[in-house]
Amino acid sequence: MEERIVREIRVSDYPGIYLLNLDFNPALHVFTEEQVKQRIEMITKNTKDRIFVCEQNDELIGYIHGSPYELLFSESVVNVLGFVVKEAYRKQGVGSMLLAHLEQWGRSNGFSGMKLLSHPSRIQAHRLYEKSGYLFTKDQKNYMKKL
User: Fold this and answer.
1) Is 139 contained in some domain?
2) Could you tell me if residue 138 is inside a domain?
3) pLDDT in tens, 114-143
């Protein structure tokens, strides 16, 4: 097996991130490569978010996006906003590597825990989270409004 590395995202990773998003959900094609590039630039320059990628043979095979989650009624945690592993590489430890990397960043930066949301249909992902020590806390409904 070739060496896998986890590192911080670079703007030049945008084509690989776009392909990972499509692998996760083909309907995401409407968010163009150029928009992905612009979003990476904005997030890395203007937020405290961290995005780590997993790379093998110069190919991006996964990424995880964490954001500080500050509340008035709880300790600070890292909120996982995006987490994708290319389908061909699932169940091979890539997701665990990415989670562990973000968790270590969170620990090193004084966060008390991790938080993530997962669609009820993503049974395999739920197994990974539970194996990694995450506890299921509640079902909830998400609401959105276009502006």
Assistant:
1) no
2) no
3) 999 877 778 788 888 888 888 888 888 888
Please check whether residue 86 is in contact with residue 20, taking contact to mean a CB–CB distance below 8 angstroms.
yes
Q: Mean of the pLDDT values across residues 52-70?
A: 96
Query: Minimal CA–CA distance to 77: which of 37, 45, 117?
Result: 117
Residue 41: which domain range?
A: 4-131
Q: How many folded domains does the chain comprise? A: 1
Residue-level length of the chain:
147
Q: What is the pLDDT of residue 1?
A: 55
Instruction: Single out the residue of 58, 53, 43, 41 nearest to residue 9, CA to CA.
Output: 53
103 pLDDT band, cuts 50/70/90, is very high
pTM score, two decimals? Answer: 0.90
| CATH number, domain containing residue 123 | 3.40.630.30
Structure tokens at 87: 């389908």
Question: Does any domain span residue 43?
Answer: yes
